Amino acid sequence: MTNQLVDNDARTKALAPDQSFIIQAPAGSGKTGLLIQRYLRLLSLVEAPEEIIAITFTRKAAAEMQGRILDALEMAASGIEPESSHQKTSYELAVAALQRDQAQGWQLTQNPGRLRVQTIDSLCASLTRQMPILASLGTQPDTLEDAEPLYQQAAINTLAELESGEGWSEAIANLVFHLDNDLPRIKNMIVDMLKKRDQWLAYVIQEHERNDMERALVRLIEDQLQLVRETFPDQYENELVEVMQFAAKKLSETDPGNPLASCLTMTSLPNNNENDLKYWRGISELLLTKTGSWRKQLTVKNGFPPASGNKLEADERSSKKKQALALISELQEFNGLNEALTTVSSLPNTRFTDDEWLIVNALCELLKLSAVQLRLIFAERNQMDFIGIAASAVEALGTDESPTELALQLDYHIKHLLVDEYQDISVNQYRLLQGLTREWSIDDGRSLFLVGDPMQSIYRFREAEVALFLKTFHEKSFGNIPLETLRLAINFRSESGLVEWVNTSFKSIFPKQDDLISGGVSYSDAVAFDKTTSNNNVRVYPLYGRSHKKEAQHVIDIIQEIQRHYPEDNIALLVRGRSHLAEIVPAIRETGMLFNAVDLEGLGKQASVQDLLVLTRAYLYQADRVAWLACLRAPWCGLSLESMYKLCDGNKDKTLWECINQTEINKHLQQDEQLRLHKFKEAFSNALAEKQRLSIRDAVESLWIQIGGPATLSNKADIENCISYLSLLETLDQGGTIEDLQELIEKVSQLYAAPDGRADKRLQLMTIHKAKGLEFDHVILPGLGRSPRSNQTELLAWLLRARGDEEDLILAPIHEAGAEKTAIYKYIDNIDKTKQRFEDARLLYVATTRTKKTLHLLGHASVKETKGELNCEPQGRSLLAHLWATVNPVFEKHMPENQEQDEAGLSVIVNQQTKRLTKDWTLPDLPAIFQWQQSISDESEQEPVLIEFEWAGETIKHIGSVVHSAIQWIAEEGLSKWSNERIHAESKSFDNALRHLGVPEGERPAAVKRINAALITMLNDERGLWILSNEHTEQENEYAISGIVDNKLVNAILDRTFIDANGVRWIIDYKTSRHEGENRDGFLDHEQERYQNQLNKYALLMSGLEENDIKLGLYFPLLEGWREWRFKQ
To answer: What's the N-to-C CA distance of the chain in angstroms?
Structure first.
């Protein structure tokens, strides 16, 4: 190979199927492509494709990964060999995989569901679905995308326990008093904590000993002091002691509370004992400013008074100050010393105060209670959030000492586990992977493949913990599995000039070394595959003051320049926050340029949706004056401001609906305004007459159509936005009304407007987070000078530090209302801020590495005059602050000669014009009746659930669900572990499952008896034992299968399927019907007739996968009934 990649050895080694790896792969290195190559390699070796599981973190990524695997197989089937070396490798691996596919009869391209490529959330859900009782769920709950209302209710229920008189009431009272009885604030804080309970729940449920936690504090301080002691150069010891004693002596007289004053007894460089903390604090006070920078001057406040007094004393003062400043100057050259000394100044004391410890215990009690309340709400509604599902999945796998049957079964089935984007893993997800691999060992034929880029870890807000990647990488192992560490280096995406600029800039932005506690990731150089060079790859556009409108104009100019020179290239406008586009989007629209905004424009900010929302409010609440005024002003009615004033003037005691219906008031309006109002009134009268007879969606949609709402829309995107709103109404409907209007408003604010269907992909607007994993020809980054909002204070801060095989836990409570943060809380909070600062730097890295050709940086700096000189600097937490060392020369060069006026102070002119329908607008005529025939080839069919007629009520259907789950449980555990006694022993589990399904308490005892009867009958029936026997081959329970039947896509779940000793494939369906009459055989024959077509479809699907003879069976456990027949095509 003539042009071999610099990381070719690593890429080749990563395909070794008998080894496990963790791979760090920088932006543009093709890490997902490498994972797919390994997947193809493994496909050529396994007995079944289900032995390989590939995991990623989003549905989009999982779909893309599966699509690329199928594309590779189809390319292999075509026989057309690609030219590039990378594609050639993939082609050869796909050819081998396809040969294995054909030899084994998998037919993967026709049955892609056998490729186990899924999100980690879907994996968790599938585990809990397989073993709902082990997961403590009873039945599989619905997964909530947004659990905010349930968090709110759990917080309310928790605080309601304040006066319950239970053991935890006193703890709640202590916290409420601590926070000045601010219950709304406490409620919101509980909600915020519940959103991340996977991070703290395991710690607050522990019993905490004050002495243990204070010893952990001592160890923390001693470790940090050891670090600074090792960093401080010994050759400066004597000089440091000399100037410290001089300063301490002066301050002991004038300012004894100064940390320097306590160093009077310091005779040598302090060690790392907890008692040495006061000395190190004094050293930090001498050498560093409050902001952590090296001191440039020393004053009397630092123990160095002016050179006054007699000559001897003046000379000594002058000499010591010069000596100290020279020492500071020389110490600046030692890497890491500044950071170590800065940490010292923030170290807490080694003891909790009694009040602090009281609130620590109160918070642990309150948070435990809130988690229990949330669990109860989940159980009542049979719903759960992703955190709960993940925790339940971990629970379903058991522990290291006691793995469950499910864990052992998965351990048998899963041979190879591949995880993409491993840097985004959370604590719960990490525990899940531990559970899946805990029984793995060296050379057992299984492999673990972890790939990711810690430099692109930007999802802390989703509980991603980059330290887990760093820990795995540095330890070179995951549990019992040794891992070989590999690094990729080639960037296939960006031109050489861009890669070099990123390398140079981010070496100084990222920390020098990895830090597991603060999540610091050191930088790894990349090497450009594309050697194209240009002097204009990166362009900086300096702005000064709050120049957002100027920035918007710059963006327009950049877009237009790129489109002139590269009309076919695509452009991405990436921002840190959606609000950063407030001035830019209107400016782009004014030019007439079309663009795609990806989840950027809030649905609630669209005029068409705002109009629908006020229409809903007016329909629901006749006294909502603001909503009615907005309705009358909206385009479908379009009253003038003058007419609205006449309606309202002097009628404050009446609703607007009453005013509209009074002729005496209306006659003062102009004639065309009266006509508009009459049409609106007529439609609204009809709607109100039907109120609560229709669903809220139907009512609002019908009214909206009648008054001409659709005619006011200007494009297809507006229509889609309105449909989204109406669909939301449907989900919140409570008997034809909306019970919680605020919930509707909040839900609307969480939805995003549909992209403009007229626009192509050549201009896209999105957040940096949305752009992760994407690439563009040109990238524009505006708003770099803006800072994000500050994080809210949390009820409890926690810090977990590894100590050999053990861990030190430190908890810190929120400070008392009106008081400063406690030293312990402040220390942990500073670590969290450092984590966020490091993640902000990684966010900037992700943004700058999306581009192939050019990168455009826009940001504003503040211009300030100091001692007659103008200086510019960025806002502290802005992305521009991270880049400042690189771009500062450009800002200094173009800095204005005077301070510019902020745009915030400029006057704003509000346009009060409105668009409206013409006064003679009428609804269009309905179209003529026409015949419509659905295209059969486009149909998709889910197998219907045929209700067993003996069971009329909901309870009976739920009995059937539990029986099915229990039979699956028995089959998967094995008959040897089940008996009549075991069935009765599980009665509580069955009752719990029924409760989760909503079966009333009074009906559950009889239902449990019926479940027990069905299962015991099956265990004592020869046919039932044969069905559940583990002597069959290829046996599956609740087996999902899909395929085409009669030109329709059919999805089905087989209760049980296996191949018997004669090579016959059996497909068996369980029926929990009960027959009280005499003609039992007639009843069974009738049931066979009912279900025969459905099972024949199952057989038809299975026949496409194998050539075995197929028999079908219906088993009735309550009747010891059985019907079977042979499938004939």
So the answer is: 54
| C-beta atoms surrounding 885 within 10 Å | 11
Between the alpha carbon of residue 86 and those of residues 4, 54, 505, the distances in Å are 11, 21, 30
Alpha-carbon distances, residue 419 vs 57, 124, 425, 452, 863 (angstroms)? 9, 14, 10, 8, 48
Q: How far apart are CA 658 and CA 673, in angstroms?
A: 17
Alpha-carbon span 697 to 715, nearest angstrom: 22
Tokens 């600074």 correspond to 228
| pLDDT band at residue 911 using 50, 70 and 90 as cut-offs | very low
| Cα(1097)–Cα(1103) distance, integer angstroms | 10
Lowest mean pLDDT among 203-217, 478-492, 800-814: 800-814
Task: Give the 3-state secondary structure of 33-64.
Answer: HHHHHHHHHHHCCCCCHHHEEEEECCHHHHHH
Cβ neighbour number for residue 630 with a 10 Å cutoff: 18
Tell me what the mean pLDDT of segment 517-535 comes to. 88
Q: How large a percentage of the chain has pLDDT more than 90?
A: 34
Give the residue from 551, 597, 602, 523 showing the smallest Cα distance to 770: 597
Task: Report helix, strand or coil for 714.
Answer: coil
- In what helix (H) or strand (E) does residue 980 lie, and over which residues does it extend? helix 980-985
pLDDT-based confidence at 930, cuts 50/70/90?
very low
Say if residues 1042 and 1052 touch (Cβ distance below 8 Å): yes
Residue 58 has pLDDT above 80, yes or no: yes
Core vs surface per residue 740-768: b (16+ CB within 10 A) or e? ebeebeebbeebbbbbbeeeeebbbbbbb
Closest CA to 915 of 636, 629, 591, 719: 636
Strands (E), 64-188: 116-119, 142-143
| Alpha-helix runs per DSSP H in 438-485 | 466-475
d(CA 331, CA 232): 8
Q: Give the integer Cα–Cα distance in Å for 265 and 442.
A: 57
pLDDT tens sequence across 1068-1116: 999 877 766 667 888 888 888 888 888 888 888 888 778 888 999 999 8
Q: How far apart are CA 913 and CA 722, in angstroms?
A: 23
**Both tokens of residue 586?**
């209107």
410: pLDDT strictly greater than 70: no
Indicate the DSSP class of residue 474.
Answer: H
Are the C-beta atoms of residues 382 and 998 closer than 8 Å to each other? yes
- CB 574 within 8 Å of CB 780: yes
Report d(CA 700, CA 706) in Å as an integer: 10
pTM: 0.73
Four-residue CA torsion sign, 31, 33, 39, 44: negative
* Opening angle at CA 557, ends 553 and 562, nearest 5: 150
Query: Which sign does the torsion angle of CA 1062, 1065, 1070, 1076 carry?
Result: negative
Pick from 558, 527, 524: nearest CA to 541: 558
Closest CA to 361 of 620, 646, 167: 167
Q: Give the Cα separation of 172 and 177 in Å (integer).
A: 9
Q: Over the chain, what is the mean pLDDT?
A: 85
Structure tokens at 830: 């500073």
| Tokens 């599981």 -> residue | 53
Residue for token digits 């070794």?
16
Which residues in 661-711 belong to E strands, given as ranges? Answer: none
Residue 476, C-beta contacts closer than 8 angstroms, at least 6 positions apart = 22, 482, 483, 484, 485
Angle at 748 between CA 747 and CA 750, to 5 degrees: 65
CA distance 877 to 785: 9
Q: What is the pLDDT of residue 805?
A: 67
pLDDT at 944 over 80: no
**What residue type is 872 in one-letter code?**
C
pLDDT of 1052 > 90? The answer is no
